[in-house]
Amino acid sequence: MKTFKIRGGLGDSAVVNTAAKLQDNLYLATNSKWLKKAEIPADRSSINGFVELDIKIKKQLLDDLNDFSSNNKNLPKINNLNKAIQLYQLALDFNKRDDDGAKPIKNDLNKLTSLNSFSDFNRQASSLLLSDFAFPFSLSVFADMKNTAKNALYFGSTESFLPDAATYKDSSADQLLSVFEKQAQDLLKLSGLTDDDSKKCASDAIKFDKRLAKYKKSQEELNDIAAIYNVYTLTDFQSAFTSLDISALLSSLFPDLPERIIVTEPEFLKHIDELINSTSFEELKGWMIVTFINRYANYLSQEFREAAFAYEHAIYGLQELQAKDKHAYSIANSVFGEIIGLYYGQTYFGKQAKADVEQMIHKMLATYKTRLNNNTWLSNETRKQALKKLNAITLKIGYPDHVSDLYDLIEISSTKSLYENLVKANQTKIKYNFSQLNKPVDRTLWGEDTPANLINAFYNPINNDITFPAAILQDPFYSTERTLSENLGGIGAVIAHEITHAFDPNGSKFDEVGNIRNWWSEEDYAKFNELSQAEITLFDGIVCGGLKTNGNLTVGENVADLGGLTVAIETAKKENGDLKEVFQTWAKIWRGKMTPQYRKSIIAYDPHAPQELRANVAAQSIDDFYTTFDIKPGDGMWLDPEKRVHIW
Ligand SMILES: [Zn+2]
Prior knowledge:
By secondary structure, the chain is α+β, with helices and mostly antiparallel strands. It is 53% helix and 7% strand. The strands form 4 sheets. Strands 2-3-5-4 form a 4-stranded mixed beta sheet. Strands 6-8-7 form a 3-stranded mixed beta sheet, covered by helices on one side. α7 runs antiparallel to α17 and α19 runs antiparallel to α20 (380-392). The two termini are 37 Å apart. The model has no long low-confidence stretch (mean pLDDT 96). Residues 497, 501, 557, 560 line the site of zinc ion. Its EC number is 3.4.24.-. Its cofactor is Zn(2+). One of its GO terms (molecular function) is metal ion binding.
């Protein structure tokens, strides 16, 4: 007998079913054949369209790096690409890495183990922070979200051992932390600490980490932009610290002290004194040592890499370490991703593809404009503001014209160890970031997080721009070999998804230049909240892979998916396209498999719903879906019309 779950399609969409009918489960009917054959590579936690493309691009770039290294290919004239290759070679030199063992970290580890009191920590705070040692809070400089032409100083919490504050509340937290603790002990022993010291450090570290996590915001909380923008005067900010000499620390980091600091996690600031003080010194010290060894073990010998694998296995279900050459590529890419991306874009992304994608973006923007004009729930005044924002969206396609001058400052030395080079590079990045405080924001930069060799697309609310790196502009998202309708269901929907982020529950708080500003009438905003709430309710609690989806955590992405697919369908209708192809390509781009560990881990903090549901639930809200495939009440994909959500 059939059971109808209605939301998300029939059955658990993460369970392959080659007999599934499209009317019952769009995702499974489209992808089950592929899913049955697909295998997760042993050094990965998932396989999907994005990962397949990543494997292909990585191989291509790895071949090129090897050719440059052996002089089989001439190095193209791209500033600082030579440094990326030098770093790749250093990372690949396992003879040296294995010979060196723990030697490269000896001095730095010593600095940490010889901290003898809280006042010692206080005295060295500035140098510890600038040296890229783990620090119990973070300071960073980026655009002021209420005046994005200028930079501001932000204060927030720092990394913790489990990936998100929400993960600490899960029943698996203690088990994962005990794997982490055991791994930390192993790494410290390898580094030369005694058994007893390693044990004590690891146990202190876990204690500190648990206290830290208590006051950290979860990803779900961080999604609330209005709540992360809290302006403190310098005096108010400093008064939260009575143990740490924050005034001396800030003066030494910033010769021109800012008058105000934006605090992203006020609760964390409120408890900062309770976290960092002379009583908690030993725990803090243990946490700094363990974070240090855990962060850098991967840059030492193969023995260290292997000893640092247990936690990766436990939390993401990885079966194998990355092969040495892929690992070396990842290291070069972690420092010089923008440069390698520039090389990738200039070499593999043609003018034709750029022109095609640009044309597609303009098509999607035009459909968006029509939809905003025809929108029935916006008042004229808010509609005008929305159109102003839409028209002001800047496009970043393929690869940037130029990258930050940061890379001119990073030096790579072949006579130094891989570890020393990486620490030095990170130190340069920290100093460079701090030096931007009183400088204007350069909005033309793409930034470190969006290199052209990354398979993803982005909307940045503080720039009001959308970025499509060269890497995503190919099969399965886009291909000149495919029909317009197929490309609309792929890259077209992705483009409209990014545009919709300008109008999702987060993006809607930012104006056309990227400032947090309310451009809504009160009534319109109330209506928008009501619609967003309906989208939360639609997703909340749907079971996928045996786990419940969090509607609130994923609402921004779900609103974007709904807008993305709606606009793709509307555009296809205008062009007399084949709607079946649009829906099926949409379902195809979300095909994927992941390890149970990874699924369990990301469900707690990933703002994206499980990919199976992204495919199905967005389609369920679109009326054309029902007519296109003749879906009737009683079918697994059927959703009663009053339950369908229409926003943009
Ligand atoms: Zn998104």
